[in-house]
Amino acid sequence: MRSRPALLSLCSLFLLSLPVACAPKLDEKASQFIEAHNAQDIDAVLALFAEDASCDMMGEWSRRGTETIRQLEEWKFAANSQLFAGEPAVSGDTVSFALSEASDFLRMVGIDRASYASFVIVFEEGLIKQVSGRLTEENSAAISAGLEPLTRWAGVHAASSLSDLIVDATPVFSVDSYDGWRSLRDSWNGFEEDALVETVRYDGRGFHHEMYLSGSLGVIAKRTIHRNRSNPRQVTAEALAVYPNLGETVHIADFSGQYPDDDKATPDRMWVCLDQRGDVVTRDGNPVVVRTFPAEQQTTFRRQYDGAHIERQTTRISPCENCAGRTGLPECRFVW
Questions:
Q1: Largest CA distance in the chain
Q2: How far apart are CA 134 and CA 195, in angstroms?
Q3: 196 pairs with which residues across the strands?
Q4: Degrees to nearest 5, angle at CA 153 with 151 and 156
Q5: CA distance linking residue 212 with residue 219, whole number of Å
Q6: What is the pLDDT of residues 208-219, one digit of tens each?
Q7: pTM of the model
């Protein structure tokens, strides 16, 4: 027969083991975080975190404390964020899994679902101590490219609003900041350039000139024309679309040949189409070009002279009245 102290010891061990046996495993707790996030249950999310927990997103945004995590989660809730997690892998106090995310914000920048290269949750005493996530390089670059035209426009036309959303090159996360992004997007979508400006610079003898098309955000496209010195009607020309947000230029068209006696009847002349914001209209990433037609697009110009030679000509181009109908492109607001 067992002694009473031995029975008490066994009973104590059994009772101590009950919380451990009943406590959720770490992979289950990680799954609870995903479920609470997708249910937009902020109290359930925060109940899983230690008070001094930290959150590190993409190696660029790192904050500590549940209040900051609350602001991030509420921002994601406002954007209708949904997380899609793979099977969790547990190593000690760390849980990792494949993760992707869909949200209204991601769709706003042209991404249906973004994938994380890594997503890790570290636990301490059963609570989340750290969450770190890093998007794939491809998705991170796509988000930057998708946001760049909007932030570039906002930097000129809504600088005060943009400064509330990005402070010291770091995004601000809150419900108000998400509403701010939506407001910026709506303003950007509704923005219309009242005119574009073509600037032509001549070399003084007329054998070479450069043409630049600009909007409120800077240069949009450029064209260079070279005339043969012995035969000025022998011309080579090249046109390029400029994409400041991508840091590159894209070839539009070349011309090489003999100009007719009438300069206005340039053979095989092509136009590039531009939308209401002055952005080059593209299809499959390539600029859309169309053959010239009688465009109802008012222009006014002024010239600067160097002696008898034209040094510079500036032309103001108003929105086109018939370009969308003539090109079959609803977004075609200007041609150049």
A1: 123
A2: 42
A3: 317
A4: 105
A5: 7
A6: 788 889 998 888
A7: 0.71
